[in-house]
Specification:
mainly beta, seven-stranded antiparallel sheet
């Protein structure tokens, strides 16, 4: 699986192509625990470990950062600029 954000469907995992907003992880999980209709982010760290997080996409930066802080995230993902943003 490539790094990115996906929607689980009856047919499997469908990549989500978004051009705006902010992805925020709300819970670490495993691929086998993702339910149909849920979105999740997948990324591989420098040690080769695949991380899977249930995610939500928000349009407002302030709310995205607040949600990231609420869920103790180190960063959120800025879709338009294709980069992580530190949560402080």
């Amino acid at each position: 699986m490539k790094d990115g954000t996906y929607l689980k469907t009856e047919a499997g995992f469908t990549p989500i192509v978004a051009t705006t907003g902010y992805w925020v992880a709300v819970e670490e999980t495993e691929l086998g625990l993702i339910a149909v209709g849920e979105t999740f982010g997948a990324w591989t760290d420098s040690d080769g470990k695949l991380w899977v997080d249930k995610t939500v996409r928000l349009s407002d930066l302030t709310n995205a950062l607040l949600l990231g802080k609420t869920f103790s995230q180190k960063a959120i993902y800025d879709v338009a600029n294709k980069k992580e943003m530190e949560v402080v």
